[in-house]
Design brief:
The protein has about 350 residues and is an alpha/beta fold. The protein is about 30% helix and about 15% strand. The protein contains 13 helices and ten strands. A hairpin with a 4-residue loop joins strand 8 (about 255) and strand 9 (about 260-265). The protein starts with a strand and ends with a helix. The model is unreliable at about 345-355 (pLDDT under 50).
Length: about 350
């Protein structure tokens, strides 16, 4: 039987405030492509190409080459320990990149991560691809569903999908993966379900997944009409109530590599800071994570300046996807000395943020 719980997380979490600063990020997010075969109403992919360019400097035409991912793997070796998680995800559909199984093999062989996962709509999944991904070394397949019917898929994502055949593909991955330690996690957004369908969703996947959850849609993307009127700050997407958060924990334990090799301190589409590029020969992943630019960015968040940072000011991640064990608001004053702030509250890094 599947457990009803959020499909993120692994059970090995520690209170983030007790281990900062990190020498190695817990999570590296890799974006195989910006392209997507869905146009979900609550997602940035529902926007026009021009809107994406103007709001986010985002182009659907960019995909990661195997050479760029090879640079990611090589630079990941410089860290003192493996990532806890290597996540193939982003703001496109990872399975559209045909080299994804090769990327997973490379990462698995190099031993750069304890776990490898894919976040996907899984519409391109076949038995052959499932076998290939499992053999390559994927441990978690996190699938975002757009309801529990073909009609819901047409309405929510504009996709023509045979839902019954799709469920069979997911069930195949679940059964084939169990024998080799790979797990299927499924979730759907509340906005993709009709009244009474939540129970049907849980019944449908009770014997076809390891975890399942219905998430609350949040205003993740600026300019998306379907979520414009929604507010964040009282509960997260998992339905857990919390006080509004100002310090985003994501840049303290993760990084993201975009399809073109750009390195960002988090996986937000707003890309609030560019720390370098794995292809430029100047900044490696380790240098990006431990360097002064990232430290300055982290310190700006500890100082409570989130809403003064372009991109961060529009992002709801602290109130949307942050785990309670990662909350840093109350710990921020005590953490600042670990990030170079002198006893009188000033430092070169802090001054660079204020300029």
């Amino acid at each position: 039987m599947a457990s009803i719980e959020p499909i993120s997380g692994h059970g090995d979490r520690v209170p983030l405030r007790t281990v900062l600063p990190l020498a190695t990020p817990f999570t590296l997010n890799v974006f195989p492509t910006n392209a997507c075969n869905f146009s979900c109403s609550y997602c940035a992919q529902s926007l026009s190409a021009e809107d994406l360019r103007q709001r986010f400097s985002f182009s659907r035409s960019v995909s990661m080459s195997l050479e760029t991912f090879a640079a990611v793997v090589e630079q990941s070796r410089e860290f003192s320990s493996p990532y806890k998680l290597l996540s193939f995800m982003g703001h496109g559909e990872p399975l559209l990149n045909k080299r994804l199984p090769d990327m997973i093999r490379m990462a698995k062989k190099a031993g750069i991560a304890d776990r490898i996962e894919i976040i996907t709509n899984a519409s391109l999944l076949t038995r052959e691809l499932s076998d290939e991904l499992i053999e390559a070394g994927v441990k978690n397949l996190r699938v975002s569903l757009q309801g529990i019917s073909s009609e819901s898929y047409r309405k929510t994502s504009g996709a023509n999908l045979d839902f019954e055949a799709f469920v069979k593909q997911l069930e195949y991955f679940h059964l084939a993966g169990k024998a080799k330690g790979a797990r299927l996690f499924v979730k759907t957004m509340d906005c993709a379900l009709r009244p009474g369908e939540e129970e049907l969703f849980y019944r449908l996947f009770d014997d076809k997944a390891s975890r399942m959850h219905v998430e609350k849609v949040m205003p993740v993307y600026d300019g998306v009409e379907a979520t414009r009127a929604l507010e964040s700050g009282r509960t997260d997407r998992y339905g857990m109530p919390h006080k509004p958060r100002l310090v985003c924990p994501l840049p303290f334990f993760s990084m993201a590599v975009w399809p073109d090799g750009a390195i960002s301190p988090c996986d937000a589409i707003y890309k609030p800071s560019v720390l370098g590029n794995v292809n430029d020969g100047e900044t490696t992943l380790k240098q990006a994570f431990t360097g002064e630019r990232n430290r300055a960015f982290q310190l700006s968040l500890l100082r409570g300046l989130k809403n003064s940072i372009p991109g961060c000011s529009k992002c709801c991640a602290p109130d949307d996807v942050s785990h309670p064990m990662d909350e840093l608001d109350d710990a921020a004053p005590g953490l600042m000395p670990r990030y170079g702030v002198e006893s009188h509250g000033k430092s070169l890094i802090a001054e660079s943020i204020q300029k």
